[in-house]
Amino acid sequence: MLKEIVITIQSWGAAHRFIREHKLFRWILIPGIIYTILFIFSMIFFFRSTTDFVSWASEKLWIEGWLQKQRSEWLSFLFMMAGMMFQLVLVFFYFSLFKYITLIIGSPLFAYLSEKTEAIIEGKEHELNRKDLSRDVWRSIRLSLRNAGWQSVYLFAILLLTLIPVVGWITPVIALLMECYYFGCSMLDFSLSRNGFTAQQSMQFTGRHKGFAIGNGILFYLLHVVVILAPAYAIVAGTLTVHQVKNN
User: Fold this and answer.
1) What interhelical angle do 230-247 and 171-194 show, nearest 10?
2) Do 177 and 214 form a contact (C-beta atoms < 8 A)?
3) In this predicted model, which residue has the larger pLDDT, 141 or 235?
């Protein structure tokens, strides 16, 4: 899996060179600006709402009052850590919902960008096929809804784990890796679909090659330092990764 993550990281470097060489920045800036605005406002809302929820839950369960009676610094530390881990996992859950909404709304552009990237790689003239594009869009929407459902189930289980002392401290890492995996699945599927993979076969492929999906997702998160570039770079890098695997 580590080798696959390294290959994916290399694909992101290749994606930058590819986008610059073939002047694809116009397909990045407009959706990137929209994504950035939505991302900033969403994360402000997510952090505020999770803080309010943790405070509300602590008050309703009388945790704060009980801790004051116990006067134990160790217990207070454990509950403080549990609250922080719980809040972090909640933020990941909120962000996953935002991510899937973005994938659904932006699926026509993402499908088009993936098609255009593959056409350039293969030296073909890209022609917009509305029927194929429509098929890819609906498939992307169905996959996003499926992934959102399964990820929500797993995240609920992870939220319960946050309440276990010490063990719960690693739950944000688990939640992050799961986030990366499911996002990477969506990015790779645009290209896998055009290579004859059914939706089930696409999920089986990413299940066997988790490193490609996780690596794509990790770089997607890291690129939020320059948030405007994240979605389009993920699409181009995913297409380049699948093309490299196909040739090998």
Assistant:
1) 60
2) yes
3) 141
- Mean pLDDT of the region 21-31: 74
Residues in the chain: 248
C-alpha neighbours within 13 Å on the C-beta side of residue 243:
17
Alpha-carbon gap, residue 159 to 88, rounded angstroms: 10
> Which has the closest alpha carbon to 13: 192, 241, 243, 174?
241
Mean pLDDT, residues 23-40: 75
Of 228, 59, 87, 222, whose CA–CA distance to 162 is shortest? 87
DSSP character at residue 227: G
Range name among 9-18, 55-64, 222-231 with the lowest pLDDT average = 222-231
Q: What's the pLDDT score for residue 65?
A: 63
- Alpha carbon distance 245, 247 (integer Å): 5
Rounded CA gap, 71 and 69, in Å? 6
On whether the CB atoms of residues 20 and 225 are closer than 8 A, the answer is: no
More confident residue, 204 or 60: 204
Return the residue matching tokens 């946050």. 162
Q: What is the pTM of this model?
A: 0.72
| CA atoms lying within 13 Å on the CB side of residue 59 | 6
Domain boundaries, the chain: 2-247
